[in-house]
Write a structure and sequence with these properties.
158 residues; single chain; 11% helix; two-stranded antiparallel sheet
Length: 158
């Protein structure tokens, strides 16, 4: 049993270590990228594992991610989705082709993540850092006529 718990601990430790880069950026150096991701679906799984159709909905995020070396040991990070779009397409009758409900969309910014990472130890290919990340709820939490379109979760996270 102890071996199983130790193995589980190692798996969890390795996954959390891979979640963020442990190496600090050199002072005034950094890594920056602009990216976009989206998810569009016209069906969903029920609580019984069956597939149900629904009106096509989607969410799109265009963001910037950056890491910047403040000092040799302190790195600042930012994830800022500066354009977010959440939408529902028109609901169309399958028999008449008539639009039963018009589609809706909202455009907004998304939730901002700001962080600091401090390098505790670095030697060769080994690095150990600690970090703090704050999630700021800047996105829209209740858009559209029914209040179900979102570009953020409305929660302050850390």
């Amino acid at each position: 049993m102890k071996k199983l718990i130790f193995l589980l601990y190692l798996c969890l430790l390795s996954s959390s270590l891979m979640a963020e880069d442990g190496w600090p950026k050199p002072k005034n150096g950094g890594y920056f990228k602009v990216a976009q991701w989206w998810l569009v679906a016209n069906q969903h799984y029920t609580d019984q594992g069956k597939i149900d159709p629904n009106v096509t909905n989607g969410i799109y995020f265009t963001n910037v991610y950056g890491e910047y070396g403040i000092t040799e040991k302190l790195t600042g990070t930012v994830y800022f989705p500066f354009f977010a779009r959440s939408l529902f397409n028109n609901t169309v009758s399958s028999t008449t082709g008539e639009i039963l409900q018009a589609g809706e969309a909202i455009n907004s910014i998304g939730d901002l993540d700001l962080g600091l990472r401090y390098n505790l130890f670095q030697k060769g290919s080994t690095a150990l850092s600690v970090g703090l990340q704050l999630g700021l709820p800047l996105g829209e939490t209740a858009g559209g006529s029914e209040g179900v379109l979102q570009t953020g979760d409305g929660e302050f996270n850390q």
